[in-house]
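hey can u check if this looks right to u? its 376 residues, i copy pasted from the old doc so theres a chance i mangled smth
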Amino acid sequence: MYKFAIKAVPFAIVAAFAAGTASAEDLVVKIGHVAPLSGGQAHYGKDNENGAKLAIADLNKSGIKIGGKTVKWVLVSEADAADPKQGTAVAQKLVDEKVNGVVGHLNSGTTLPASKIYFDAGIPQITPSATNPKYAQQGFKTAFRIIANDNALGAATANYAVKTLKAKKVAVIDDRTAYGQGVADIFAKTAEANGAKVVTRQYTNDKASEFSAILTAVKASAPDVVFYGGMDAQAGPMVRQMKALGINATLMGGDGICTQEILKLGGDAVGENVVCAEGGQSLAKMPKGKEFETRYKATYNQEIQVYAPYVYDAVMTLAEAMKKANSAEPAKYLPELAKISYNGVTTKVEFEANGELKNAAATLYNYKGGKKTPLN
């Protein structure tokens, strides 16, 4: 079971003091952040939170003035345990806290229901990591995404499977979450459109660690590729169990498995046989990716998992829209956010009319020599 994090409010208080005590002449601007901060997906959530912390620290050093007042930026970080019910509860908590904007949630399953709460409250939301296309199809003018969606990720992996790996038969497994099922559906549809056959479709959940029954059925179908729609907490054990069962197929997935953590979870079963797709360009190709990576490592003494640069850009994009509007009031800066053009770490941030990122890229990776390595 995930534990509901109780560190969020203390962190907000610490952030406020780190920025300096706000005076009557200061304008306090609260940025909400939501991700799982405990349990099997905590490494994603803490990575996201670290990206937000870096952005808040940079903003407080910059001395930005809005409406003639110096802004004191405060991060209000909450945990949703990747659970939709907790996600909506936390969203309402942030609304009640009167945050000026939200970066999150991490998972599609929590982002989708939470987005309605932010929309009803008129609070702009940028997700740095939720990729289900439905997020941008709801007509919510407050909803923005700063990364490629599952249409791009599922298609990229399917095209690579059929056109590069020459796969004729593919097995598809998903964890039944909004993210996992969504990206798996797109992979299956695109693979079949390219001439491959989906020989079996299997299902698990985002808490599972044992896949012998599923993988026995997969082995019987003799696929060239196994696509997993879900997160690395399951993909790591899955690839180890595939090796133990003698399944020699390539394991593929979206950004949920495209992490440093899968190297630990999968051990020596992870190598060139694992191929994943991540929204955006590789760090080396991002406009300011290498600089950000250096700062991140120096600050946290660890590797970036996936989304920290996107979280950083999301916070900075909200701040840029507020600066342009000369207001931190959601209703006043929302129009500026919709037409923003911001040169970020990851890309030039500009949004389509539905809130999707313009010109969103996707990068494929494998784990050659025990290192996450871009393939394009």
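The longest helix spans residues 42-62.
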